[in-house]
Amino acid sequence: MEKDIKTILGECGFGFKKQLGQNFITDKNLLASIVTAAGVGADDTVLEIGCGAGTLTRELASRVKKVTAFEVDKSLQPVLCRTLSGLDNTEVVFRDFLKVDLKEFEKHTEGYFVVANLPYYVTTPLIMKLIEDAEKCLGLCVMVQEEVALRLCAKAATPDYGAITAMIALRARCEIVKRVPRTLFYPRPNVDSAVVKFTFGNGVEVADRAAYKKVVHAAFSSRRKTLENNLVNVYGISRERAAAVLEECGIPPKARGETLTPAQFALLSEKFK
Ligand code: SAM
């Protein structure tokens, strides 16, 4: 890249859009450490969501076989033309990735890793999309707000544990691999971030994913209510039936949804197939 990123953004007259979570990474060591944490190498294909000014894209492109980057903001095109110039293994698609049909996308790609620095509002829908629909995703390594990272990796019966955590357990295990201070972004956001790595292929065993999803959403539909109450409301069953199902699964009658492990959700989902 011929100049530093702030100069290029200025010269292109780029205006940051806060609503799109545009806080770009400028720190070279951080860029390198994200790619290393993702565990991707020379034979790998990477999907990047939200390439911004292309700093992570460029670092990825120097270390993997191919990068396909999605970016919703077309006004970044002149910036990316400069920051990604000279790369022949990188394609930028100007589209909202949340509107992309993942099954269609996967028809045209081999197994791929997702690596991204995600805006807040995209995190949960993107992760759900991958958990529910991806068949060729080999791994996921994302930078998210620290508070969100804690939720994604939370253990059962802790305050951060929620439906998204239990849904991730269907397909993957995840861990925080790096905390990242706000000072390493431009412009500087109001919160710190963390890099979360998901390892696919070692999720909890379930016979029916739709039944699992429904039971998880039922359990968290009202955190102030007991699991029994939530089951009654969501499934329209009697209190006696809900109590009997919980007993059959060895779950205490007054348990709350957030105390159940993914394995217990799997067991419960068997009863509601
Ligand atoms: N990857 C760059 C980096 O690390 O410096 C940019 C990260 S910035 C936090 C997030 C980027 O995602 C922004 O450029 C924003 O325009 C883009 N974005 C937001 N929502 C998107 C969506 N639904 N699909 C694709 N890109 C999106």
Brief rundown of the structure:
With 273 residues, the protein is an alpha/beta fold. The protein has 12 helices and 9 strands.
* Residue share in helix: 25-40%
Number of helices: 12
Beta content: 15-25%
End-to-end CA span: 55 Å
Structural class by helix and strand composition: alpha/beta
Bound molecules: S-adenosylmethionine
Poorly predicted sequence stretches spanning 5 or more consecutive residues = none
Can you give the mean pLDDT? 95
* N-to-C order of helices and strands: HEHEHEHEHEHEHHEEEHHHH
What's the main sheet like? 7 strands, mixed
Rg calc: 21 Å
Number of strands: 9
Q: What is the overall silhouette?
A: elongated
For the biggest β-sheet, the strand order reads 4-3-2-5-6-9-7
Structure, explained:
The protein has twelve helices and nine strands. With about 270 residues, it is of the alpha/beta class. The strands form two sheets. A seven-stranded mixed beta sheet has the order 4-3-2-5-6-9-7, with helices on both faces. The protein has a two-stranded antiparallel sheet with strand order 1-8. Strand 2, helix 3 and strand 3 form a beta-alpha-beta unit. It starts with a helix and ends with a helix. The model has no long low-confidence stretch (mean pLDDT about 95). It binds S-adenosylmethionine. S-adenosylmethionine binds next to strand 1 and helix 3.
